[in-house]
Structures are given as C-alpha cells and as structure tokens.
Amino acid sequence: MNIKQFDSTGELDLYAARIFADMLASKPHAVLGLATGSTPIGIYEKIIDMHRNAELSFQSATTFNLDEYVGLPRDSSQSYAAFMEERLFSHIDLPPERAHIPHGMADDLTDACIQYDQLLAQQPLDLQLLGIGHNGHIGFNEPAHALQGGTHIVELKSETREANARFFETLDDVPTQAITMGIGSILKARTILLAVKGKEKAEIVKQALTGPITTECPASLLQTHANVIVLLDREAGRLL
Length: 240
Ligand SMILES: N[C@@H]1[C@@H](O)[C@H](O)[C@@H](COP(=O)(O)O)O[C@@H]1O
Hints:
Elements: E1 2-6, H1 9-26, E2 31-34, H2 39-52, E3 62-65, E4 67-69, H3 80-87, E5 99-100, H4 109-122, E6 127-130, E7 152-155, H5 158-164, E8 177-180, H6 183-188, E9 191-196, H7 202-210, E10 228-233
Parallel strand pairs: 1-10, 2-3, 2-6, 3-5, 6-9, 9-10
Antiparallel strand pairs: 4-8, 7-8
Residues 35-39, 66-67, 131-133, 139-140, 160, 164 line the site of 2-amino-2-deoxy-6-O-phosphono-alpha-D-glucopyranose (GLP).
C-alpha cells in the first residue's frame, strides 16, 4: 500500500484530483469508480476547478458509482444520484448516459444488480475512489461473517444509518437497505484510491491498514490489492 499523509484536507483533495486528471490525460476513455459521502466532496470541488481551467475532460470517460439507497427516488435530495448530480456531474462534461449509478428504485432489484455487474464486466474499472465508514465498510459492504463479490442488496447496520442520519430529517427517514457494488468488483479495479479524513476515522484506518484481513472490517481486504493509494489527512493518520 502506498500511504500518503497530508497536513491539510485541501492538499489531500488536490492530490486526489490530480490522480484523476493524470488518469484522464493518459487514458481519456478511462472507467472511473466514484464514491459519495462527505470525504469526496472536496476532491470533486478540485476536479471541477480543473475542469473549469480545461485541465481535464470527462468527455470520453465512463463512471460507476459504488452504491445507492434502496427506495429513494433519484430526484430525492438524499439519493446518491442527486448527490452526484449536485456535487460533480452538473459541473463537468461527462455524457449522462455514461454515468452509472445502481438503481435503488428498480422494480426488480436482483435484476438491477445483475445488470450493473454486466456493465462492470464489460468496462473494467481503471480507478476506484473510496471513502470508509466508521465500521470499516467500503461502498455499503458492511462488516459480516462473509462478504459478497458482486453487486447486491445489503441491510444497513444501525451504526451506518446513524452516521448517515445527518443527511436526513430524522433517523427513521434513513433507508434500511442499499444496493452496493461488491467487494469483488471493487478489488478488480486496477488502482484503488482510498481517501480518509478526520480524527474519528483514525482507529478504523489503523485497523483496516495494519490489522488482520477480515470480513468484519471490509476495508482490510484492500491489503490484498496490489495497487492501493491511501490518502490520509493528519488526523485520520494519527494512529499509524
Ligand atoms: N456508502 C457511503 C460510503 O461509500 C462512504 O465511504 C461512507 C463514509 O462517508 P463519509 O465520507 O461521509 O464519512 O458513507 C457512506 O456510507
């Protein structure tokens, strides 16, 4: 693992955005895995700045998002589709038909998972951006005795719903299920970029990067991948 620590989140964001710019410069048709949550927001802001300055273009790129809540309409402000639209897609030149997000409102969710995996199989990920949940989840792959490789429906843990309740009016409004890319799909990405910020993530960062490889901490499986870049701000890296 290539672990880099930054004195400020701004420096981390810029470094991550440059990785995207370099990827798109060397491979305009790159397939990019994208993430939601607070962590990537600053990275997307830097990417938008670079796009504004004509330093990068998504015109020929394809993107796949990690996950989506089940049961939230795409135009609901808390959906990850709405998040991506607001935080990135509406500001860049990515053709909308090449921006893939799991379909959490599909009539047949099992079929939606199969279709997502088929698209991923046709277009392998060059670069996957990840955040990490407080319990070590990546995407919405929650700690469990066993993990699934492909896209699947997951029951959200209470701690995950509580952590994400800040985006909803009440805890009861947080969906109980999500559709997520599986660990197998994430680990197939050629390069993985894990970004972590804040002191409340320091303990899980230590466990994920230096602890045992276990499905009880899904992010620890990243230790098995040959090309992971970990970007930490000072607080998230303070226990390493
Ligand atoms: N499904 C997302 C994850 O992909 C994300 O990594 C996590 C951490 O989010 P944050 O960056 O806001 O701490 O939140 C959600 O649960």
